[in-house]
Every structure is written in C-alpha cells, then in structure tokens.
Amino acid sequence: MPFRDVLGMTLPTIPLPDFFDDLDASLAHLWRLLEDGPRLRRNAFHMPALATVDADGCPQVRTIVLREAERRTGILRFHCDRRSRKAAEIADSGRAALHGYDSASKVQIRVSGPATLHTDDALADAAWDGSMTMSRVCYGVAPGPGTELASGEGYSLPETDAAIAAGRPNFCAVQVSATRLEFLFLDRRGHRRAAWKRDGDGWAGTWLAP
C-alpha cells in the first residue's frame, strides 16, 4: 500500500533505505559517507562544519576540508594554520565537533570528541608531504589568519617554491577522535535518528526521538 503523510496525501512508493530500521546498518552508512568525504569532492561530507569554543566560552563554527576518516580508529583529520583561532581554541579545550548535511539524501551527521594538534611530528610531516602545492600556499599568508587589515587586499601569499616551503611551520594537522556520533535521516514516512558512544574498540548505539 502507498504511504500517506499527516495530511493524508499519497506519497511516492520509493523504497526505504536498508538502514532505516537497522542501527548497525545506520552506523555503517554513516562511516561510509564520512570515509567517502575526503576523496569525493562533491560529497556533502567533503567540507563539514567545525565547531569549537573560544576563550570567552562562545561557540565558533567554520567550514573545513575533511582529509581523512577511518572507522576502525574513529579518527577524522583536517588541516589548519597553527596561527589561526581554531587552532588556539582546540589547543585550549582539547575538543571539537564536526557537522555535515547532505540535502540530496537527507542525511545529517554529527561527530564530537577529543581533538589534538600535530605540528612538528611524523603525522604532520606526512600530511604536509601529501598536500597539493595550492593547499600549501595558504600557510604562507602574511600576516596570519584573522589579522585585521586596513584593506581587503592588505595581505600577501608566497610565490616561490622556497617561500611556500617556508610556510611549513604554520601547518597543522588536526585529529578528532570521535567519542560520540549522531545520525539523522529525514523522510516524510518517518525520520530516523540514532546516536553512538565509543565503547572500547566498538560503538554502543541507541535510537533517538528525531
């Protein structure tokens, strides 16, 4: 039989996804979307929002590029300038949250947990080596990110290979170790929302009211 919404309107009989009433399948779908994010530029989770808290206790949100997501470890990685406010806020609080929403599939994902900065270690070196030149240029901007300017053009970017390489000390790889995940699927036949907490090497999940 066709589904009807609260107004009694007949809804199209589009099959519900396999994860609709399956917690394990929902978790697997969540991680599949996150793991696709770094490699698929058109994926909605390629550029999630990062949330931190500043020194005054005020929330701060901005968009970042997701560079890595790994279900086995629960770690997500992105890069930033160590001179930036988000780097300072993560250093102070040791925590961060990420949020993404795919309007096409009507899926929202929220991730939160401890966050660590890597600037002068092997992880940071590997992340820098794996970055494209156009990305490395950003870390040579002068003055540093967030500095007030007399005019919109009052900053400079490195133009030579040596100048770009000189920005390496400003480069920072950030890892968020997910300890809580939330998944929301929107559908007129009934929304599905779930949450998981890190439980050793696995996840303990529950359905939530949407």
UniProtKB/TrEMBL annotation:
GO terms for biological process: pyridoxine biosynthetic process. GO terms for molecular function: FMN binding; pyridoxamine phosphate oxidase activity. Keywords: Flavoprotein, FMN, Oxidoreductase. Residues 42-118 form the Pyridoxamine 5'-phosphate oxidase Alr4036 family FMN-binding domain. Its EC number is 1.4.3.5. It comes from the Bacteria. Its cofactor is FMN. This is Pyridoxine/pyridoxamine 5'-phosphate oxidase. It comes from Methylobacterium bullatum.
